[in-house]
Amino acid sequence: MAGCARLPVRHDATAPLPLKIVGTKILNSKGKPVLLRGVNAASLEWSSDGQGQILRSVSTAIHDWHVNIIRLPLSQDRWFGKAPEQVDGGAAYRQLIHEVVDACATNQCYIILDLHWSDCNEWRVNIGQHSMPDSNSVAFWKDFAPVYANHPAVIFDLYNEPHDVSWDVWLHGGTITDKPNNRRQMRNPKTFEAVGMQALLDTVRGTGAKNVVIAGGLDWAYDFSGILDGRQLSDPHGNGVIYANHCYDNKNESVDAWIVRMETASAKLPVIVSEFGGHAGPGKVNPSDNWLLHVMKALDEHRWSWTAWDLHPGAGPTLISDWNYTPTPDFGVHVKKALEPRPAG
Questions:
Q1: How far apart are alpha carbons 18 and 212 in whole angstroms?
Q2: What is the model's pLDDT at position 319?
């Protein structure tokens, strides 16, 4: 096994309470509803060292932005030390993830460990964001999940933003031609055997890890329709599945239409908006509507959990404008304000 030793399961006062899904609710081990609100902290998908900033970003998010959850995008190749810049078999990368998880757990902050970048079954040469997971993704979860199995702070995000496949492939896998989020890779798209989301979940559960997991639907985690149409994941041996929505102003839909989608889904499913981002100002569909503020108002009024994208000055839409963590005036300031502690009651 490539992974570092299984993390100790914390039961002290520094760790957040374990989570479980009951119906459409996210509950802690005391049976109380939990509202998760925080940020994404990118860079470990495209770098093996977090660009020297990831631990500082996590600390800033927790102590200055007052998040209670961080979503951490990862790379399956880097976990195994297969990226070109790695010479240690992935040991430093795995240790850095361990330190990020511990930084969250010791500050009562949850963390979503997100398989963000894969490789279409080609280690080292095809690292990036792809349409669906692959057999190497199964290898990742088989090795990764035991390290964080049943850790109270840890949520697993099975695969970032599936897209451009059928709902049956989403659930069960099948042969696909990739539509990657990379111009160079798009010139030579790969045809490969994709793995379905149920197989990834089964792999996690097969390791003994009962952690809550997240699964995003199709259209880059925007579409819930197939899940609502009978393709919910089967999880009889775990603590449940949250279904993710990624909300950006690029879908040619009004905020009101998005709200209807979310209301329909959240009436039947536990949901989280695990990515959203944009700029305060006119919406693309309705120029008289301030898209970002309307979305954030809906998130607040409906008490939907969320993690905004992204606490990195180069991962747009950006919450910060520099490594002093200065909030961007048309996005970050609004998210940071929404995260401010509120009086009880």
A1: 9
A2: 98
